[in-house]
Amino acid sequence: MAVKQVRYTALLVLGLLVPATGALAQGVGPQAEPEWSLPVHDDVTHGQLLMDRFEYQDGDDEDVFAWEGQAWWGGDTHRLIVDSEGEALVSGGDGGDVESFDVQYGYGVSAYWRAKAGLGYQTTFGPGPDRDRASAVVGFEGLAPYWFEVDTGLRVSEDGDAVAEFEGEYDWLFTQRVILQGRAETSYAFSEVREFGVGEGVNGLTLGLRLRYELAREFAPYVGVRWQDQYGDTAELTRAEGEDTEKTSLVAGVRWWF
Amino acid sequence: MSNHQKPRPLSRRDILRTGSTMGLMLGLGSLLPGYALGLTGNRELTRRTEGNSDIYELTIDRTPLTIDGRRSVQPITVNGSVPAPLIRLREGREAVLRVTNRLDEPTSIHWHGILLPFEMDGVPGVSFPGIAPGETFEYRYPVRQSGTYWYHSHSGLQEQLGHYGPLIVDPEEPEPFEYDREYAVVLSDWTFNDPSEVMRNLKVAEGYYNYNRRTVSDFFEDVATMGWSAAWEKAGMWGRMRMTPRDILDVTGAEYTYLMNGMSPDDNWTGLFEPGEKVRLRVINASAMSIFDVRIPGLPMTVVEADGQKVEPVETDEFRIGVAETYDVIIEPQDEAYTLFAQSQDRSGFTRGTLAVREGMTAPVPELYPRTERGMAAMGMADHGSDGAMDHGSMDGMMHGNGDQPPVADRQISHGPDNHGAGAAMVAMNPGPRLDDPGVGFEHVEHRVLTYDQLRGLHAWPDEREPQREVELHLTGNMERYMWSFDGEKFSEVDGPIPFGYGERLRLILVNDTMMDHPIHLHGMWMELETGNDGYRPRKHTLLVKPGEMISAQITPEHKGDWAFHCHLLYHMKAGMFRVVSVQ
């Protein structure tokens, strides 16, 4: 029951953020008398908080805690969606960044695809001065043919810098509970943003392989490996700060939702 | 094959059944072998008689019970039991059923399969406002049919909480078959969790209860049997569609404990018989979500009724029973004990009982059939009839009885300009009737399995007009978001009811554009399933439509009013696979 309460509290908070989506519920069906209740209530709203990555990354020089997750609330067609991704150094330095905290409206455009549009927030903290910026975000998420989970977006910051982002996931089932998730992430910047270490062009590529065991659908510990490489101007900005552009780390974490 | 159609003298049981005074019923109640409490988990409700009325009192409440001997739970009970007590109505009399709601929420009872005035049909929001907490509602209707039916809540997800029971209507005329003893066999699925949590899991996590998904090793098994290119092509075809051939039931044995007359496999419901007796089993699938395959190893069964309506007796070894369907079978057990085995369609679990000469006996319990997956026919892409036995090249034989094609066999269908929109993840490309196909999961079975085309009404039905009008509805869904609908529109998205003309003759055509079987239930009127057995169509209240299948039924709306029409998978209905049919 405690889990349920936490969930409802979380959903309530989400609901308060943008109460408008609740009013988007569909029209009423043809009950025989206006004062009667409907025979079925098919426009009930649901919500979920899913942490796809919630992990410790053990790298060569530094260890990092990283997360990536989504919370949503709404019905089949209209949803409020919050996406967030980021990391914080645990050892080998301090600081970190919230790569995204996007609050978006999602609309189910087809059976497998949802269009998203909203506002995003990014920040980096320590060492040095904290920086943050807001942006407008649009994108699509859904299930592509051959079972690829895809999340794409175009982010335009308050300064007019634009970045296209792409992320794909694929699950291989070894058993009903042992699942290997492969993921790939890349982005393309249309302009350089030196403060965020972003150069123009393809920034880099992050690949991951995570093997999870679904103790329950809601709770799946995993281990895996993460490999990241940077390219072009971005790589040069990183090298200028004296850091490696290529990083490989072992990861351990839990995929969870409620 | 036995075929008992001759009239016969009244048996001892007939006399018991027609006992008209309360004293007789109460006095002999404890002698009734069929419904003794503890033996069957089925209790018969006593009735009071006043003039031409049979009066029954029902109280709906929460009652602590132990299910599967494991935990005490709080199911919704009728007069204290799950299943609800067996109600015996009598054809030709008036039924008066007073239902008192002791729950803290509104409730209802729908008399499933009974044709009655629409105000008595018991669907909140369609036929009446529902029964408020503390209120008593009196159902009163003339009983003009006989057979095996059932009753259940039509409010929210209450059915999943135990609110269902058997309903038998004793006929005025003697049955055209003989039997010495009878049992109601109520199959159901029980969850120890809150049904609204089950609904949420289905909504937020596709495949939540499916622990039979395809794995990497399944792919390599395909490679071993089919070769690389065929295995790759098969995986690619399903992958392109983003469909899984392993998606057979939404809620599985991972969640459910399957019950027979309220008892789990370990509880072992037992029905007694004496060797040489003919036993009538009235099998009712009162599940929320579970399609069952029923058999008695070592014992053939003769099907005499489907959905309470007489069919020409047909002998079989196994039958599939969709949610809300009923089948009456007659068996002649000779040995001391038999297992009555009902496995879920996806082979994720089973329930069983024992038919035996005395209590405490068991017979070997068979293994579940191997898990299986759907083939091309499920996409509505293959030839009609997955076994390839049907020739659908000609229409001209349709008037000549058994073995001929239903009239929709060569029908061209349209999915509309947008293929039913976001609510439909797929459409059947070339759907057709597969009435001779027992469905997915019998691939390795060598004995007889009942199919719809084997059902032949015992009589021609009163209205012999050809249909004047056709109504085509598509069963649509999107597993990814757990949306279920007709023609891509959930109940909340449609503007008004489907109009049926009072007294008209129409053909209802159902096209299943999904990967799942759907038991489609029409309230208030019979659907005469067009099997090609012209004039001897089986008459049904619930039609189990296979994936990629198109079937049709002739209908004469005989009762004015608003009637519910829906998929009887509870969470599909809840997700919007529901319409109102208005007969004016």
List the helices and strands and how they pair.
The complex is a heterodimer of chains A (258) and B (584).
Chain A: H1 2-17, E1 46-58, E2 63-74, E3 78-91, E4 96-108, E5 113-125, E6 131-144, E7 148-157, E8 162-173, E9 178-189, E10 201-213, E11 219-230, H2 232-240, E12 247-257
Antiparallel strand pairs in A: 1-2, 1-12, 2-3, 3-4, 4-5, 5-6, 6-7, 7-8, 8-9, 9-10, 10-11, 11-12
Chain B: H1 12-18, H2 22-29, E1 48-50, E2 53-62, E3 65-67, E4 71-73, E5 76-78, E6 87-90, E7 94-101, E8 110-112, E9 136-142, E10 147-152, E11 164-170, E12 181-191, H3 195-204, H4 216-226, H5 228-241, E13 256-260, E14 269-272, E15 279-285, E16 292-295, E17 301-306, E18 309-316, E19 318-321, E20 326-331, E21 337-344, E22 350-356, E23 469-478, E24 483-486, E25 498-500, E26 506-512, E27 518-522, E28 527-529, E29 539-540, E30 542-545, E31 550-555, E32 561-567, H6 570-574, E33 578-583
Parallel strand pairs in B: 2-7, 6-11, 12-15, 14-22, 23-26, 25-33
Antiparallel strand pairs in B: 1-2, 2-5, 3-4, 7-9, 8-10, 10-11, 12-13, 15-20, 16-19, 16-21, 17-18, 17-20, 21-22, 23-24, 26-31, 27-30, 27-32, 28-29, 28-31, 32-33
Helix pairs in contact in B: 4-5
Pfam family, one (chain B): Cu-oxidase
GO molecular function (chain B): copper ion binding; oxidoreductase activity
Protein name (chain B): Copper resistance system multicopper oxidase
